[in-house]
Amino acid sequence: MPETDKLKDLAKKVKAWGLELGFQQVAISEPDLSSASKNLLDWLDKGYQGSMQWMGEHGEKRYTPNQLVENSLRVISVRMDYLTDSNMIAVLKDDNKAYISRYALGRDYHKLIRKRLAKLGKKIETEIDFLGLNHLQLTQRPFVDSAPVMEKPIAEQAGLGWIGKNTLLINDKAGSWFFLGEIYISLELPVDQNEQTNKCGNCRACLKVCPTNAFPEPYVLDARRCISYLTIESQEPIPEELRPLMGNRVFGCDDCQITCPWNRYSSKTQESDFSPRHNLDNSELVTLFEWTEEEFLHNTEGSPIRRIGYPRWLRNLSVGLGNAPTSQRIIDALNKRVDDPSALVREHVIWALEQQNSNSSVKFFKA
User: Which residues constitute the domain of residue 36?
Assistant: First the structure.
């Protein structure tokens, strides 16, 4: 069998194996990131990355695959759905509940997907031996939202969707409730030619619904105003003018996905590891705020939530409690942390108490 036919056969098997491993889509690309790199540099010049200085590091490795992984010729992109419930709006509208981004309710996706990609890589190694392609000197490396990888532009070129006005990858048959992963590989596998066209059209639903107006223009996100950045990435105090706009969103924000018309086509995941743990999809703010540090560490074990640490967890919940309807239980819980060892926590607790005392009430979710 000619070498090109062997590689074509291998590409078909890679996609089949990927589906067997629990991915909903697998595609292969030879990405051209010249346009994406220009957009990234423009974005960085405007300071939209906030404190995420790592976004500007690593130079050309971020947009030149063979500089990140030597001899890379192709990228295998995978998609894994993660949505487990449909009660998002109900939780957002209940000011006493804590809204946690749906990607973070279960097990940390990084570990799960990385293990699946490692298994896929092993299958590729075995098949190369079987096909007698050892002379190609295989090099490959998996990535899951890690290292300087421009995963959305790569996945877009592979045909997994298009980058929408909310800067997320959108698939016309699956919406946007999914994770991405990649394998950089040195094999000259045939590439997929099914790139999806941008189908956002005149829709501006995601831009209008953003609680903090984090989109200065379509397809551009100012992370400094994004609730996901404020509650997860930032280690600083949350700007006071943005706190009332955050409502009960204490870890991430999904509003621009919830309102996206294409998510009517999304399917619930079959991955049990993504199922909510410890009732985090429907918990009261004050209940989570009353967790001790030991309870926080125990209840977030294996979860992406744990990486923000206990002080930032309390910071975020303090903002939610400040925005909640006034209650004696909330005031009592906040008063117990007025002298918290963390200055970050103390600042937000005091702010929350001031809000409780002023009995402020705002409707936060724009239906």
Answer: 3-83+105-185
Q: Running along the chain, 367 residues long, what does each successive block of 10 average in pLDDT?
A: 90 98 97 94 96 86 89 97 92 98 96 97 94 88 92 96 98 97 97 92 98 98 98 98 98 98 94 95 97 98 97 98 96 97 98 87 40
> Distance between CA 199 and CA 197 in Å, rounded?
6
Record the pTM: 0.93
Whether 130 and 177 map to the same domain: the answer is yes
Is residue 181 domain-shared with residue 218, that is, in the same domain?
Answer: no
Task: Assess whether 249 and 318 both reside in one domain.
Answer: yes
| Residue 210 and residue 178 in one domain | no
Catalytic member of 9, 85, 94, 145:
145
| Whether 5 is catalytic | no
Number of domains making up the chain: 2
